[in-house]
From TrEMBL:
This is Fe2OG dioxygenase domain-containing protein. GO terms for biological process: defense response; negative regulation of defense response to insect; regulation of defense response to fungus; regulation of jasmonic acid mediated signaling pathway. Residues 209-310 form the Fe2OG dioxygenase domain. Keywords: Dioxygenase, Iron, Jasmonic acid signaling pathway, Metal-binding, Oxidoreductase, Plant defense, Vitamin C. GO terms for molecular function: dioxygenase activity; jasmonic acid hydrolase; L-ascorbic acid binding; metal ion binding. It catalyses: jasmonate + 2-oxoglutarate + O2 = (1R,2R)-12-hydroxyjasmonate + succinate + CO2. It comes from the Eukaryota. Belongs to the iron/ascorbate-dependent oxidoreductase family. It comes from Psophocarpus tetragonolobus (Winged bean). InterPro entries: DIOX_N (IPR026992), IPNS-like_FE2OG_OXY (IPR044861), IPNS-like_sf (IPR027443), Oxoglu/Fe-dep_dioxygenase_dom (IPR005123), Plant_2OG-oxidoreductases (IPR050295). Its cofactor is Fe(2+); L-ascorbate.
Length: 361
């Protein structure tokens, strides 16, 4: 299958340093490469605010008509006001969620030489990684990750998935199946809330033929958490993200106006957020919102981000029913392949990517 990834460089611009090994070596300072400019550092008074993103019980979608419509309304408001919400009673088994997180935690605690067999490159991104962009000399984030393709089947390659711990492939297969079903249900909700037939958003992403991938994030302890970030501010490039957070350690921060709100994860909830492609399809009725991750001096953190994306080579543009004389199309068409390449070359940087797609007026 040909795609535009041929423009990607073959290798990283500098030798890769595993943050986990740094964390084990650094006692009271961190290397210069990880120190963020003052304006990007987490502020110490963050979280004085007791706000939390909306928590929505999805069982309401299957209840009485009144309950259904109030649940739809809560989701609609969350998509417009926050771009983020937590869902409970979502139909994925708590045991599977715990097992998925636990299995990946075990992977990150395996010997470095085992993990290195899966080291990734900018060409495919798949595998064990420690940096996101390829700009030489960039300030790096305090995290390691593992990136995997789940769909389309043509990209799914078990050889790129860890063989150890032995349950890893089986657990992730089942987890992926459950999350694809959950995302399909959420797409119907978004469609209905946009005033469309329930299958329109899914069809605009490519119907049955969508993409899905996962990034497992590992944020090691950091002796100077106030100087760095586990993941720089960015909006997600794809369709929708479903995050299984570390319910023991908060870290995700969501931008709300000029403030950063630290999300308080609810056990066995998923955190759902709108990605850039759904912002484009919805003609900005729904916004993808900037978020970032702070790190912790005495606790490591593991989270699993599942990305539900459009088919990679179809043009994504505002859905025609949402384009009106008083609300013209805000974006020109671009395929997800083109968009993703554009981001991979630059690494995470706020919301500048989707903003730069706006149609010239």
């Amino acid at each position: 299958m040909m795609n535009n990834n041929n423009n990607s460089p073959q290798d990283w611009p500098e030798p890769i340093v595993r943050v986990q090994s740094l964390s084990e070596r650094c006692r009271d300072s961190i290397p210069e490469r990880y120190i963020k400019p003052l304006s990007d550092r987490p502020c110490s008074e963050a979280d004085a605010d007791d706000a939390n993103i909306p928590i929505i019980d999805l069982s309401g979608l299957y209840g009485e008509p009144d309950e259904r419509s109030s649940t739809l309304k809560l989701i609609s408001e969350a998509c417009k006001e926050w771009g983020f919400f937590q869902i409970i009673n979502h139909g994925v088994s708590p045991q599977l969620m715990d097992m998925a997180r636990q299995t990946w935690r075990q992977f990150f605690h395996m010997p470095l030489e085992v993990k290195q067999q899966y080291a990734n490159s900018p060409k495919t991104y798949e595998g064990y990684g420690s940096r996101l962009g390829i700009q030489k000399g960039a300030i790096l984030d305090w995290s390691d990750y593992y990136y995997l393709h789940y769909l389309p089947l043509s990209l799914k390659d078990y050889n790129k998935w860890p063989a150890q711990p032995s349950s890893c492939r089986e657990v992730f297969d089942e987890y992926g199946r459950e999350l694809v079903k959950l995302c399909g249900r959420l797409m119907k909700v978004l469609s209905i809330n946009l005033g469309l037939e329930e299958d329109v958003v899914q069809k605009s992403l490519g119907g049955e033929d969508i993409g899905a991938c996962m990034r497992v994030n590992f944020y090691p302890k950091c002796p100077r958490p106030e100087l760095t970030l586990g993941l720089s501010s960015h909006s997600d490039p794809g369709g929708m993200t479903v995050l299984l957070s570390d319910d023991q350690v908060a870290g995700l921060q969501v931008r709300k106006g000029d403030n950063w709100i630290t999300v308080k994860p609810v056990p066995h909830a998923f955190i759902v957020n709108i990605g850039d492609q759904i912002q484009v399809l919805s003609n900005a009725n729904y916004k993808s919102v900037e978020h970032r991750v702070i790190v912790n001096s005495n606790k490591e953190r593991v989270s699993l981000a599942f990305f539900y994306n459009p088919k990679s080579n179809i043009p994504i543009e505002p859905i025609k029913e949402l384009v009106k004389p008083d609300k013209p199309a805000l974006y020109t068409a671009m395929t997800f392949d083109e968009y993703r390449l554009f981001i991979r070359l630059r690494g995470p940087c706020g919301k500048s990517h989707v903003e730069s797609l706006k149609s010239p007026r």
